[in-house]
Amino acid sequence: MTKFNNYINGVLTPSVHAHTFQNVNPADTDDIIGHFPISSEQEVHAAVLAASNAFISWSKMPAPKRGDILRKAGDIFTRRKEELSAIMTREMGKPLFETLGDIQEAIDTAYYAATETRRLFGYTAPSEMDNKMNMSFRTPIGVCGIITAWNFPIAVPSWKILPALACGNTVVFKPSEDSPHSAHIFAEILEEAGLPAGVFNVVYGDGSTGSALVENPAIKLIGFTGSTFTGKKIAERCGALNKKCSLEMGGKNAQIVMPDANIDLALDGVLWGAFGTTGQRCTATSRLILHKDIYDSFINALITKTTQIKLGNGAHPNTQMGPVINAKQLEKIQHYVAIARSEGATCVIGGDVEISGDCAKGHFYKPTIFIDVTSDMTIFKEEIFGPVLAVTKANSLDHAIELANNCDYGLSSSLFTGNVDAAFRAIRDIEAGITYINAPTIGAEAHMPFGGIKGTGNGHREGGWTAFEIFTEWKTVYVDYSGSLQRAQIDNY
Ligand code: NAD
């Protein structure tokens, strides 16, 4: 049995105690990948101390030199793409074509962050005084604690870690307990790229380890991706401790289809949006809002296409949909399906676990569709994070948008239509951080802002240039070369 160690100050550091967790293949629960430590407060402290010490020189290194290391990391991710894809599929289940995409997102982010190190622009503005110059520039924040979910084991951490490093911060990373092996490889890649010891550290563990990271006084910022439940708890603590905190949380995303849409395209869109990554994306399409004129015909076609989805171990090349992540998540899905039935929604396909053939040893759930879902039902409102789609009928575009907005979350959204006026109205009126026109609710690109409103976020955006807003502070500088005391607001007026 492979035993994995924390990565602290550039060294794989054995845990000082015996508390560990198992990393298990969700497609085959007999396949144990390894044991990882549940890191204690002391171990978190050791990692934070290493990151604090490393900050002194890393923050002073010219930003483009830091960029050179990130570019090299992008090259190594590219070289190890296939190998890492297999590791990721084994530990979290999504098919190989998806894990390859996950790593590509990190490659894109690495190259983008490297380029941005030459573009960490500040502002200058004229002074109101004679012989005085005003300017402002970005400075790093310090040691950043990064805590993430498991569904994008490389991509999501890369969105935070690589911009944080580009800006001159150092990092302690607490990956999800369901995808620790990918984090281990992340550390290997950054080390090979030439990152100095202590700049990036990994501590494994559960919520208690994450909480120790939040509480550590030397942590200046928490970058979090996970459930709204956990995110709110972290935000409360960060508020009390006066730490910067950026949150990417849950979603309940809707795809709207109008009668004038390209229906085949809309069908492909919802199949990928609802059942890609087994519905375990923050941006997954969990609600489908159909105009009444196409309601029945669209559902019939959707059922036919859904029956063709090939479930199985993500490591097999023909698999289209892998397992759900663990037994707890499987139970959660079953719980929501039972509620949906009891509240009067009609299950037209799926609605049960899959235990036949290739799926016998894993956590598999059939792609599931409920129709006649109304806005007061639980499956319309709450995030399930599984392959369960709730279909609702709308009378008009306005009604469809009203339904889409009738939700505590605000991450992604989509409208399929052939009408340009309808498209622009939806872009304006849908309450979400991301709106797709004639594309599914999933498919973010690394160089564009990513994040949501309402219960999904707290005002920050990852991805693209906006990530650099999270990981820097502003320093404002006034240089007075008049040789006399000039009092702002007083001497000029
Ligand atoms: P989760 O909230 O249970 O866990 C996320 C991380 O937080 C894990 O690393 C966990 O160990 C840690 N954690 C748990 N309790 C903690 C505490 N008290 N203090 C500090 N850390 C703690 O989420 P999950 O089940 O791993 O992931 C699924 C959720 O993530 C879904 O809600 C999904 O929508 C969301 N998600 C959001 C995005 C986004 O960008 N908006 C992306 C991916 C996933």
In words, what does this structure look like?
This protein has 493 residues and is α/β, with parallel strands linked by helices. It folds into two domains: 6-249 and 457-476, 3-Layer(aba) Sandwich (Aldehyde Dehydrogenase, Chain A, domain 1), CATH 3.40.605; 253-437, Aldehyde Dehydrogenase, Chain A, domain 2. It is 38% helix and 21% strand. The protein is built from 15 helices and 21 strands. The protein has helices at residues 41-58, 63-79, 81-92, 96-116, 155-166, 180-193, 207-215, 228-241, 263-275, 295-306, 327-342, 378-381, 397-405, 420-429, 467-470, and strands spanning 6-8, 11-13, 20-24, 32-37, 123-126, 132-140, 143-147, 170-174, 200-202, 219-225, 244-248, 253-257, 285-291, 346-349, 368-371, 388-394, 409-410, 412-416, 434-437, 453-454, 472-480. The strands form six sheets. The chain has a seven-stranded mixed sheet, with helices on both faces. The protein has a five-stranded parallel sheet with strand order 9-8-7-10-11, sandwiched between helices. Strand 3 (20-24) and strand 4 (32-37) form a beta hairpin. Helix 3 (81-92) packs across helix 4 and helix 3 runs antiparallel to helix 6 (180-193). The longest helix is centred in the first third of the chain and has 21 residues, at 96-116. The protein is globular, with a radius of gyration of 24 Å. The mean pLDDT is 97. It binds nicotinamide-adenine-dinucleotide (NAD). The site of nicotinamide-adenine-dinucleotide has 30 residues, from helix 7 and helix 8.
